[in-house]
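Hi R.,

As promised, here are both runs. First protein below:
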Amino acid sequence: MCRFVFLLLLLLSITSTSFAEENVFEEKDGVAYYHGDPNYPAWSMGNRVGAVADLSSAYIVEENEKWRLIGFMSFPIVLHGMGGMDATIPLEDEWRECWFWQKIKTEEFFFNRDGHAGNKVEGKAFERELNAYRMLLDAAEANMALVGQ
């Protein structure tokens, strides 16, 4: 019985240290950056999963007199705890393309829903997304200027 308890305690201590929390985000001016790199802001944080954007990949997909569609690459990250900034599993191999809309006249941002502008991004709950969308828009405009479009 003593060996069983010892073995159980040993396994628990090994398991808990192998999944130790790692704070992979650094906050600067209200924006959380992946490993402190200003090219990788966190743009979405839920209870258990977040997302990191790549500013260098941002581009303007389409634009007309009313709307602008911005695309960028992102990867998910599994978070430890309820909305905590300590990540346990960065899923860098699961890059995906994401989009959001900007209404040109009002400069408001909207979520992408099935290729169309969805709900308006607003309020304190979406502050992180709004900051990231502004950064992504600036990066998209700069990236498009670099390629001469």
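And here is the second one, sequence first, then its structure tokens:
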Amino acid sequence: MRLPVTKSRPRIVGMGVALAMVCIVWAATSPLPVRRMAFSAPAAYLAGLLSGAPCVKDGDDFRLLGSDLDLTVVPACAAVDYFCLMTGFLSLLLTWRGLNSRAHLFVMPAAWILTILINALRLIACWQTDRLAQAFLPQSVWPATHMVVGIVTFLTGLTFIFWLMTLKTRKDTTYEYITRGSD
């Protein structure tokens, strides 16, 4: 049985995605190993692959081994909150673009892939800046530089996704504005 196409259908799908996000947050913040295996491990191994550094499992953590600095990826580095943010962000963008409800089925897998990729890039950026921070900055500011790099990387990822998702809309709007302005 197909649901009738109505204007409220994207909202219903959006609420379904929101409910799924709540379930994921509950699962990821629980003591279950979901956060480690679904988020930390893929990001750590991808960061190791992209940087050329070996990634080894060390208890519940993962370590990127470098010549002058090791980076330990703990479950707090899982970016589960960023995944939830990305899921909601993509869902809102799809609803705003007016895409059909089938497109919403791909929101969570796309958000997971993007989260793993952006988190791996964040791990590499943190690894490099931690190396520089330890060489040139006092020890009291090392945690702040680590946090700032994470914020900048995650916001850049969201901005880039927004830019990609609105590229066609910007082109259409610019064209309409130019043609209306020439009358």
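A quick note on the second one: The longest helix spans residues 107-136. Let me know what you think.

Best,
J.
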